[in-house]
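Record Putative transporter MCH4, 125 aa.
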Amino acid sequence: MQLTQSSSVEIPMNDAKEVDSVTLEPVDSQSGMDGGLKAWLTVVGGWIAGFCTFGAANSFGVYQALYTLEGTSSASNISWIGSLQLCLIFAMGILTGKLFDAGYFHHMQIAGMLLYVFSHFLLSP
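=>
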């Protein structure tokens, strides 16, 4: 059985009860499998979301230095805020992963955006 660029291969399915065979079509080498503009815009959107999320978490040291200099609390007490923030970023993945798979991406984006902006307003001295 030879596979050429214009032919297809049928693979018999021994354990299948309803399907007798599966047809595999060769991939056109010129079109590629990159998904086009929509796929690359998704990659860019994911990068921007990650940049904003982890950028705020990584910049917590600036807030910690400010609050320590003001003398409102000790550095160890303030560091709990940053630790909890980073923990919640990963822990919320347990819930948001299920919602994302269920198709609630846009709802989560809107709710997250509002919560993010509200949180930054609460951080201002």
